[in-house]
Amino acid sequence: MKKLLPLVMLLMTGAVIAPARADLTHRMSSSTQLSVNGAYTDASRIGSTYTVSGSNIKVTDNGHFGKMTAATATAAAAQDVGEYDINTAGSAFSFSESWTQGDAVNTIGSGVDVTAGVVADMPAFGNTLSMSGGVAGTLAGTITSAGVTTLTAGGAGTTATGQFVTEIVID
To answer: pTM score, two decimals?
Structure first.
């Protein structure tokens, strides 16, 4: 009976204790993102404007108030300068005149030239915003099989992003 006792005890422990179970998932991922900004120009034509105001002012004999001439298909309106004089000599007067020359109409296809990400020239409009593009230069990103991420800075207007993500899930 002494010989059967260890065997009975062993069988009893196997029936009482169930084996442990767990699902284990392990994920690893690496990525790099490299970008170079593009060049751009935003240009808006402005129109011609003319204003005149004053007191104790008159138009000279055979003269006229300032005015704008009619625009053409390719040219903005121009200014026709007025001819003024003081109305009552010796009295106070005020006079103000303002002129803004509008932009000419460029032909289609003319204007901005971009070479290798650099804005070489742009339209000469009244409102112009221009941004040179980035220069890749030495911009680079690598990931080794060991998960080592290496990023090399580029020139102006570039970005480099690298990441390594590890995830362990136990269900």
So the answer is: 0.48
